[in-house]
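In response to the reviewer comment on reproducibility (Comment 2.3), we provide here a single inverse folding case reported in full, input and output, so that an independent group could reproduce the run without further information from us. The structure tokens appear first.
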């Protein structure tokens, strides 16, 4: 026993001495580092995701397949071209309710029976698709096909979803960001425009089961549907399985088409003020008509906006938050719709009520400067490129994320190599191109300015700032006294 005790004492002593010497060496090495110099980053790594392979089912449905055989998982996504802009006038909400009702039961299964089938599989299946182990693809596709092709639209489920949506609308009316957006789309696009129309309690109340059946019959057809399949599956296997599940889905109905009228010409420089009494903050929202997703300026626009308002260290946030402490955050971005529809530019911030006028002055100052007095610098463009390209790999870590990337390609009509070339395309944007994008797409004379806040507290200072006329409006953008 004495020998064993001595052995362990010596072993512990040797470990302690070794640990001390190791730590001392590391401390010595750390002291030699020049911490005044930023460590050099490695060479940029080119993003690589599986190449999308396009196939077509016999009924005309396009299928995009992205093979990834590292783990036995398969993700299937459904892209249905049946947007809310297709809602019948006065019945806004039909498209969303139709989609939601597909999971509420089929002609052969109730909602409870669908849930039991999902439990038996060990994975969920929604009308938008599923992710499952390779062995469960056929069974999951059968359930997906049942929901898409044979929905029963039970009246009780429709009423439950209707009431849930009505309650949500009531909650939204207490949300200043929602109210600002409602005013902005009304002023920018005009009353009755497809992009202005929104779901209301009245429109929900007008929707009948027959409306959902009719919408499904018109637009849930092969000509308006695409599939994306990613994961442990070959294109040939994917096509065979989809043909088995959806081969009897016949064309008919209508091809989804969007006749989008031009935006209303908003009064340049006008501030549209929505009164929200006792609001502790004011919401600033600035908007404009934007380019299409397929614009040749897309990469220059994206990088320009990253420097302007798309990142924490962008101009807007550094100004309103870091320099002046007006807000917790300010941002801007370009939102895109399915081509060839136009997109939108939107900048927003929630600011302290007492600083509403000052914050708006600074926001507009940044818009003017970026296209004139203080264009983007080479350092800002380098920062934007680094931010955008180095964050890309995080969007492709899972089979689901790869499938979602495929959805983007098919939905927006992008080149099949889009994600594998995006880094190089961004690195190729010049400073002149980024600044040209600012001049072209950030035009203060075309910006709609909306402020939601306590009128009695902020109207006098907004008028005194002399940024432009102040018009008090309701949520539909109509002037009020």
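Designed residues, in position order:
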């Amino acid at each position: 026993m004495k020998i064993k005790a001595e052995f362990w004492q010596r072993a512990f002593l040797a470990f302690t001495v070794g640990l001390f010497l190791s730590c001392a060496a590391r401390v010595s090495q750390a002291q030699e580092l020049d911490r005044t110099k930023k460590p050099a980053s490695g060479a940029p790594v080119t993003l690589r995701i599986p190449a999308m392979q396009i196939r077509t089912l016999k009924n005309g449905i396009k299928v995009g397949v992205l093979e990834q055989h590292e783990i036995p998982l398969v993700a299937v996504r459904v892209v249905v071209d049946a947007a809310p802009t297709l809602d019948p006038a006065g019945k806004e909400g039909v498209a969303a309710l139709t989609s939601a009702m597909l999971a509420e039961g089929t002609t052969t299964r109730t909602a409870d029976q669908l849930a039991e089938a999902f439990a038996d599989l060990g994975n969920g299946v929604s009308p938008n698709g599923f992710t499952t182990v390779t062995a469960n693809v056929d069974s999951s596709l059968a359930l997906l096909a049942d929901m898409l092709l044979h929905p029963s639209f039970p009246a009780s489920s429709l009423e439950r979803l209707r009431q849930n949506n009505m309650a949500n609308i009531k909650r939204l009316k207490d949300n200043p960001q929602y109210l600002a957006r409602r005013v902005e789309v009304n002023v920018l696009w005009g009353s009755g425009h497809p992009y202005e129309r929104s779901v209301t309690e009245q429109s929900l109340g007008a929707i009948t089961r027959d409306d959902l059946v009719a919408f499904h019959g018109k637009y849930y057809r092969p000509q308006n549907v695409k599939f994306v399949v990613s994961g442990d599956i070959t294109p040939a296997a994917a096509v065979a399985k989809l043909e088995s599940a959806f081969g009897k889905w016949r064309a008919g109905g209508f091809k989804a088409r969007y006749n989008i009228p031009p935006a209303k010409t908003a009064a340049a420089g006008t501030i549209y003020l929505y009164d929200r009494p006792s609001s502790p903050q004011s919401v600033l929202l600035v908007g404009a008509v934007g380019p299409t997703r397929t614009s040749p300026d897309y990469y220059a626009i994206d990088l320009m906006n990253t420097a302007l308002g798309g990142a924490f260290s962008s101009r807007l946030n550094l100004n309103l938050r870091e320099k002046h402490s007006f807000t917790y955050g300010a941002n801007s971005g370009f939102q895109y719709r399915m081509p060839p529809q136009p997109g939108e530019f939107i900048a927003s911030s929630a600011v302290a009520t007492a600083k509403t006028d000052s914050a708006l002055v600074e926001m507009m100052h940044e818009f003017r400067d970026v296209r004139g007095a203080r264009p983007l610098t080479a350092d800002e463009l380098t920062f934007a490129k680094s931010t955008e390209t180095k964050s890309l790999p995080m969007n492709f870590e899972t089979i689901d994320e790869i499938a979602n990337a495929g959805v983007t390609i098919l939905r927006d009509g992008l080149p099949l190599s889009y994600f594998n070339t995006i880094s190089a395309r961004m690195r190729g944007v010049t400073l002149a191109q980024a600044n040209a994008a600012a001049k072209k797409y950030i035009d203060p004379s075309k910006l709609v300015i909306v402020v939601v806040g306590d009128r009695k507290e902020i109207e006098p200072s907004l008028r005194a700032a002399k940024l432009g006329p102040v018009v008090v409006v309701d949520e539909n953008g109509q002037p009020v006294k």
